[in-house]
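User:
I study polymers; will you set down one protein's sequence and backbone structure tokens?

Assistant:
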Amino acid sequence: MNQGESQYAVPTNGAEVLTEAFGLVTGPRQKQYDHPAEDYQKVVDIFCAFTGHRLSVYEALLFMVSVKMARLRTSIQRNGEIHHDSLVDALGYLACINMVKEYTNTTTFMEAWNG
């Protein structure tokens, strides 16, 4: 398999693409980058150092969802097709939001959500 290629054939239903996203966020990427709560806290800290604006971990993840949604929109407008990797990544970022919620308790979750 070449870099960037999916290990799955083009999914024929929602369950297959969800399974692919699940495999990415619970497998290789988590091992490579740490749990999303820890990884995106680093992202928030770096973004704040660059811009002076502090995002919450959830806002950082929603920003990444927005990036992938913009790319999906562009691929649909230009090619009339959904770019598979962008779809999988968007689903993965949405899953990471729930992973962060589960990683923290309710009080910490609300603090993280509100920045």
In short: The helical segments are 14-26, 28-33, 36-51, 57-79, 84-103, 106-114.
